[in-house]
Write a structure and sequence with these properties.
This protein is mainly alpha-helical. The protein is 85% helix and 0% strand. It contains 17 helices and no strands. Helix 9 packs antiparallel against helix 10, helix 11 runs parallel beside helix 14 and helix 15 packs antiparallel against helix 16.
């Protein structure tokens, strides 16, 4: 039985990774097409408006007050032990909170739709601003009221590929419909209505999947509110995460205008594609790592050593590739735009921000697995304060560069704090191993980017850009993984042993079940 469970956990981790990456490639291709169509058909101001509204709704997720992440941490133990009764109680508590949040969210989007357009310096008509805001938020209302608690269950049970796959399908259908409507000159309201329709279909599918695969699930049991009692502490961390991820666009909206927001959002979109791959890689094994953390700490420490080594190699290699090709891509992508989108300083600032953010994830996961939210909440507050203060001080003089500097300064503090806290306080070991991997990857990154941006590649068409990106990507990835394997001998041996064990278990499992 243990072998079956281990095999299932490993198989689901692979599914999470593979289907997550496939979904990301598909949605990224479509997502690149949409902003250009908005810019060409409606102008940069509409594109900036949509980016601004998306950030507003990201902040509305604070209404969740940490319920989701607190539920995830609470579910790791019961799921690992197949304790269905405890799972039911935790999800019943989650459902109770989510239904209340969904009602508040619905009221909030109506109020925002009425008030937010009044504060915008824009030529976009008020009714259009109102309609776009309400339609953009409708999907989240559905999620909180119906499918939110199911997403938590699937994520902890290492089946996030289910929500990833249905998310990819609905995203492609939504964006495909939007492209069709845009090309046929339909109104922006008609274009945004697609969000509501396909989110409704996604909700129906998730409900059916849960009913079919979790017949034991019962949300009518007595809720275990104590299990999610850390939601307030988690909420503090969510505020910090939202501030450094999404404050920039809101500040730029009111200080620099929607056209500047459009510039920021395009660079953010390019680097956001890398964000998605990195997040998928981390999330694909997060549930398995979380369960192992609670069941076999020694095994977790070995896996953490190896995962961190190759995760950081992946992060630095992907962002190095993006930094080499972002300006050539922008030249092609923004031809015919009403403003200039080419700025060589922005890739430097964006990639610094992204590396600091995603490089700390492996250490941050340790804090999540251990549930050390209360002990670290004041640190999250400090990060938030640093980000907001520096951003506000710099934006009036430096504009778009100022808000990015604010995020970078805050992350320089918090990334180091997380690495030291996770290693020294929680795992009771030196943080040098993590820092050594950082230093290695930073040196390789700087050398590759400096060489890469100076190579005279011909990239005057999308085809030539893609072909050059392919061979450069292969070469860069080999260099990063090769250097990490050469320096991190222990991590390499752990990875080799783990992969051999997986292969042998798979062969034995298939042989026994013939």
């Amino acid at each position: 039985m243990d072998t079956v469970k281990i095999m299932s956990r490993q198989k689901n981790s692979i599914y999470n990774l593979v289907w997550g990456i496939v979904g990301n490639i598909i949605t990224s291709i479509v997502a690149i097409i949409i902003p250009r169509l908005f810019i060409v058909n409606y102008g940069s101001e509409i594109n900036g408006l949509l980016a601004s509204i998306r950030q507003i709704y990201v902040y509305l997720t604070l209404l969740e007050v940490g319920v989701g992440d607190a539920s995830i941490v609470a579910l790791y133990g019961p799921i690992a032990k197949s304790d269905h009764q405890s799972v039911n109680k935790i999800l019943a508590a989650t459902d109770h909170y989510y239904k209340r949040i969904g009602g508040i969210y619905a009221i909030s989007i109506i109020i925002l739709g009425v008030v937010y357009p009044l504060f915008l310096n824009t030529t976009v008509p008020y009714p259009i601003c109102f309609g776009v805001m309400v339609l953009q938020g409708s999907g989240s209302v559905i999620s909180y009221l119906v499918q939110g608690k199911y997403n938590m269950l699937l994520r902890v049970d290492n089946r996030s590929y289910v929500t990833s796959n249905v998310g990819t399908i609905t995203s492609v259908l939504t964006d495909g419909s939007r492209i069709y409507l845009l090309l046929h000159g339909k109104s922006i309201i008609a274009v945004q209505t697609t969000y509501f329709i396909f989110n409704l279909l996604k909700m129906i599918y998730i409900g059916w999947y849960i009913k079919k695969n979790y017949p034991w699930l019962d949300l009518h049991v007595k809720p275990d509110f104590q299990a999610v009692s850390q939601k307030t502490a988690v909420f503090i961390h969510q505020i910090s995460a939202l501030v450094f991820s999404h404050t920039d666009i809101l500040i730029l909206t009111f200080v620099c205008g929607l056209k500047t927001v459009s510039i920021y959002s395009l660079y953010a979109t390019i680097y956001g594609m890398i964000d998605n791959i990195v997040t998928i890689t981390s999330n694909s094994v997060q549930a398995a790592m979380g369960q192992i953390f609670h069941s076999d700490k020694k095994k977790y420490l070995d896996l953490q050593e190896s995962f961190e080594t190759y995760y950081l190699a992946l992060v630095f290699s992907l962002f190095a590739i993006a930094t080499i090709f972002v300006i050539p891509f922008m030249r092609l992508y923004t031809v015919g735009a009403d403003i200039n989108y080419i700025d060589r300083k922005l890739p430097i600032l964006f990639v610094t921000y992204k590396l600091l953010n995603y490089g700390r994830i492996t250490s941050n996961n340790i804090i999540g697995f251990s549930g050390a939210f209360k002990e670290t909440q004041w640190r999250a507050w400090l990060e938030t304060i640093i980000n907001l203060v520096v951003s506000f001080l710099c934006v009036f003089k430096l504009g778009i560069y100022g808000v990015l500097l604010g995020t970078i300064v805050a992350l320089l503090y918090r990334a180091n704090d997380i690495i030291i806290f996770a290693n020294c306080r929680l795992l009771k070991r030196s943080a040098w191993g993590t820092y050594r991997r950082w230093i290695t990857n930073i040196i390789v990154f700087c050398l590759i980017v400096m060489i890469g941006v100076d190579i005279p590649l011909q990239m005057d068409t999308y085809l030539s850009l893609i072909l050059n990106a392919l061979w450069v990507s292969i070469l860069v990835t080999i260099v990063f993984f090769g250097v990490s394997s050469l320096i991190e001998v222990k991590a390499r041996k752990i990875a080799q042993t783990y992969l051999k064990n997986i292969v042998s278990k798979m062969l034995k499992f298939r042989s026994d079940n013939r």
